[in-house]
Amino acid sequence: MALKATNPTTTNAWKKLQAHFETIKSQHLKDLFKSDASRANDLTVQWEDFYVDFSKNRITTETVNLLVELANELDLKDAISKYFEGDIINATEGRAVLHTALRAPKDASVFVDGENVIPGIHEVKTKIEKFTNSVVSGEHTGYTGKAITDIVNIGIGGSDLGPAMIVDSLQYYKNHLNTHFVSNVDGDHYQEVIKNLNPETTLFVVVSKTFTTQETLSNANSIRTWFLESQPKEAVSKHFVAVSTNIESVKNFGIDEENIFPMKDWVGGRFSLWSAVGLSISLAVGYTHFESLLNGAHKMDEHFKTADFNANIPVISALLTIWYNNFFKAESEAIIPYTQYLNQFATYLQQGIMESNGKSVDRDGKPVNYQTGTLIWGEPGTNSQHAFFQLIHQGTKLIPTDFIGYVESLHGNKDHHNKLMSNYFAQTEALMNGKTEAEVLSELKAQSLGEDAISKLLPFKVFEGNKPTTSLLIQKLTPESLGKLIAMYEHKIFVQGIIWNIFSYDQFGVELGKQLAKSILNELNNDAKSAVHDGSTQNLLSFFKENC
Ligand code: F6P
């Protein structure tokens, strides 16, 4: 059954939200806390090892109730069932969206075209487990009999970002294998990665759902050519494996069928790390940790499916985006993890969120008359505090920000962890409270400044505050808690798409640039004049050709 298609702005709840917004838009968070003693508790959700405090957002419990009313009016519950049950909710590509099935237990049943997909998923997982164990233990050796020491993941977009982010985030749990990632078609990228590698001890994992992606195929071809400069052809099968839906093209590339880890087309690229695309993760941290990651995601799936919307972490989080994006007209959201391990987390989410919800046509094929997808950005704290926080504190833009922190640090240095977390707590307080004129005045007077100097400085030192934040406090960074966190954002993306009445699981916009690049490449390689360009592009091309 297809997803319903309703313009959210025509619902009763939307109208109520608009009226409610008028009453709340100028209220200061400090006053909201003063007028409601139980606000901090009422607007916090505790679930498993997650403590999620929504109370520093510019909402009241009435706002949450109205947003939930909106979700109900738009049949979110029904849409969630369709999502998990394998309905063709990626209608423009005629596919189900089933990354959730990849982390479902063995005894679950999810049907696609009348077939239960769960046994097939577990077959691939068993293959991943066996292969991982044999590489990690040294049983699988390179062609010359030496143990594998280095893994190179060759892929781009979802075939790179997820595995790269997870391997970086879980480096504390890593085994002895060195893991590298080649993604950019920029030849300098792969050259830099392979320059110190020994082909005899390196395993290349070519990851491409379609096996047609220019970047990945170019990198895989160039790396294979480099490999064959020192190794015989028969060595390829010991050193190249692939992950793809396109088995024939992988075989044509020269990879044996037994070295192919299959995936299905109902796994979207940006949600694919749970599939065989996660092979590099499994190799890097071991299969047991890979499975814990999947189990964590499954637990979040269950929470999302069963919790009341008022206490449902992904649902509230998604509805807050609607609130800020469509009522406050905020344009971006920042994601700030207070752990260096999650260094690549915002970059990873940029694809998930912006490729999914960067859409301007609704599910009826009509242009939307409201704002959709948000800009996503962020860097770990405390580094980001010394880079762009000034704009969040005192700039003209409203930037709702997620603060992700952990109760325990992994290496257990309490001194550093307390310093780190004191910043985590201080920033959300500072963003909310700001600094009033009276506070600045007394501070400047205490510095014995003259009245003239004080009145000149005063306006620059006042912080309005009232900047919304959500604090996610998680017990510890483990494979399982990371799985939960990623799944939380995945479901947030889904809910946003349902409310905005758009299709979140295609990405046609990415295709146009790819097509144009193909014909321009022909011009660069063959000096052909295949297209008429605008004046600017023509000049740039001529300059490049004359000078290269
Ligand atoms: O950027 C477009 C895209 O299709 C992404 O959605 C995908 O993750 C990426 O390209 C890589 O695609 P593939 O895995 O087929 O090589």
Overview of this protein structure:
This protein has three domains: about 10-75 and about 305-435 and about 470-505, Rossmann fold, CATH 3.40.50; about 115-290, 3-Layer(aba) Sandwich (Rossmann fold), CATH 3.40.50.10490; about 510-545. It contains 22 helices and 13 strands. It has helices at about 10-25, 30-35, 40, 60-75, 75-85, 120-135, 160-170, 185-195, 215-230, 235-240, 245-255, 280-285, 285-305, 315-325, 345-355, 390-395, 415-435, 435-445, 450-460, 480-500, 510-525, 535-545, and strands spanning about 45, 50-55, 110, 115, 150-155, 180, 200-205, 240-245, 260, 330-335, 375, 400-405, 470-475. The strands form three sheets. A six-stranded mixed β-sheet has the order 1-2-13-12-10-11, with helices on both faces. A five-stranded parallel β-sheet has the order 6-5-7-8-9, sandwiched between helices. Strand 8, helix 11 (about 245-255) and strand 9 (about 260) form a beta-alpha-beta unit. Helix 4 crosses helix 14 (about 315-325), helix 12 (about 280-285) packs across helix 13 and helix 15 (about 345-355) runs parallel beside helix 20 (about 480-500). Keywords: Cytoplasm, Gluconeogenesis, Glycolysis, Isomerase. One of its GO terms (molecular function) is monosaccharide binding.
